[in-house]
Amino acid sequence: MADPIIIKEEDVNPNYNWHKPVGAPGHMNVDYEQRIDFTRLHRYRLGRAKVALEKSDAGALLCFDNNNIRYLTSTVIGEWSRDKIARYSLLPQGGEPILWDFGSAAKHHQLYSPWLPTENWKAGMVGLRGTVHPDVGLMTNAAKEIKSMLVEKGLANMPVGVDLVEPSMMFALQAEGINVIDGQQILLEAREIKSQDELVLLNQAAAMVDATYHQMYEQMKPGISEAQLVANANKLLYELGSDDVEAINAISGERGNPHPHNFTDRILRPGDQAFFDILQSYMGYRTCYYRTFNVGRATDAQSDAYKQCREWLDKAIELVKPGVSTDKIAGVWPKAEEFGFNSEMEAFALQFGHGLGLAIHERPIISRLTSMDAPQEIKEGMVFALETYCPAKDGYSAARIEEEMIVTDKGCQVISLFPAEELPIANKY
Questions:
Q1: Which of 78, 169, 265, 335 has its CA 20 to 30 A from that of 242?
Q2: Does residue 4 register a pLDDT over 90?
Q3: Of the candidates 191, 222, 248, which is a domain's last residue?
Q4: Domain residues for 397?
């Protein structure tokens, strides 16, 4: 049996050294350089979660969200499990995480994940998004087991924070007298400040996208399709060490305005403006990183759109430092009506900022839709992306640029490094 994990103050202190830039040392751990300390990473994440739980009204956290499960337990299984709502984990106050994992994965953890007691790795499954009918009783049995654990630990009369849940599982918990509250907010608070190891992982993930955009720049010519560029990018990212290429948006030519957020089999043509977003992860830590290109040549309208997009982005980046509120950043971006939309809801995520970590969207969220009335404070150790969009006057082209950044003690370090100060023209005529 593993010894209990006693979290000390230094475990949840990021202890940044801003005198040198955060590195991207490669995808291997080695004996001749200090790179990622995964034991330190695990203790930091679990420690942050425990502190956030103790500050809350909840007696325990019950998690079905794969990102939170990884944050608490340092485990992951196939990416196919992300939308199944099958795995779940319980973190009780004063205790260690317990994970119910998919079938044989639990036995694998017992053998290869020694940081928790073997009995804390259990097999469990509550229905695969309802495909096993609730009448079978899997959810009822799971709720009873959870309730018995809470009783044993003296937490039965305290609320349980749940991050996401199927309705039938919620009903099963309530039938056991469990008062369910919002646990996602507790864990998002824990996850918003990244440790030194998380910063390196996020920077390494960004470096992989740098390389992918260089490949795309070289391949972008008339006759290649959006789908081919996406396929080639997937191949390179997995070769570089990605553990999940979540999505790659590829939008070209007349598809640029309005932004469709996908890719198709459209073939690139001379003079096309094309923009891309690469969402992938390295050791679970994700990227969201737009770049815009032109194929062969650019019109004045396309160049002007790019310059305006870059100007809006640079004004926002200039403001990033600890203590600034998100409404100040959102305030330098145009209102929805100023670039062709009827409301901020219609234009949501076009002039946008969002935290990055084990999920694509963490705190802070920066947008005219949300930030003007409910601003958040920018904090040292946050990692987020800022992205802007500008439609061209030709009525169909558009520019989209995004930069990822680490908030340092005095400002920020941009970690998305493929050149974007000026419009890149691939295979220029």
A1: 265
A2: no
A3: 191
A4: 196-426
